[in-house]
Amino acid sequence: LVGGIRKRRMKDKLIPKGSNALAKVGKSLAITNKLIKEIDSREVVPADDFRVPIPDENFRKYLLVGHDIENDGATVAYGDVKNFIWFDCSHSLESDTNELSILPRVHKRIAEEKAIKSLEGIQYFTALETLNCPNNQLTSLDVSKNTALEVLECGNNQLTSLDVTKNTALQYLYCTGNQLTSLDMSPNTALTLLVCFKNKLTSLDVSKNTALTFLMCGKNNLTSLDMSPNTALTLLCCSNNQLTSLDVTKNTALKVLKCSKNQLTSLDLSNNHSLNKVVLRGNPGIWWEELERRE
Length: 295
Description:
By secondary structure, the chain is low in regular secondary structure. It is 12% helix and 11% strand. The strands form 2 sheets. The chain has a 9-stranded parallel sheet. It is elongated and about 65 Å long.
């Protein structure tokens, strides 16, 4: 029996093994294989009383204290979280770099809860546009279901990987102070700000991010950086890498350039008439001194 209905042999159409679509919809065997596949592949929207698993105690505490969302010790109701647009579970940000002084803060609200180790359950916050979770103890972060996400701040955690390829609406990514070795930004064509310094990146491809205006990728292990497609760029900080060359002749909108402590032996700034801040010290030789004085 399939859903209480006796199986029939069908010469032209076979019901896929393991399909429970008929049982769910209570339809007859006249439903075609095509329709069955459509039903089986469709994402199911939970009912409001569906219990969302939140295994991290501090995550649950923050939802209770910050948003009056009650839990049963392990779960919360889907109806209570499905309409979240903005969620902030950050702690105060203390950085060892003064580069953050020029970073526009998206949110200033500081959570007073203890560090969160897991944000499992955040995938049910499907309306989420801003997720601010820096300075916790996250070792993984799954935002693949948060497709409306525009702002993600997850800096100063313990992330070794971060997949934002499903977040095509993303405009702002702040993931500094983690242990990331790679970062695929190719689907994120709406991205305007990327802050990924103090990781373990050996390469960074931003050729598809033509809307990018702000890039901070210092304190990584980058040996090359192609900025030629990023003509809207106004700020580039790539200090403390292993760059042997850098071409910014196409970046005519550039106002701030920091690429100190690399392996550069020359740099052409003849097209960068909008520059008002240049920092090159720490590269081999003294050729950079005159370029710094031009500001």
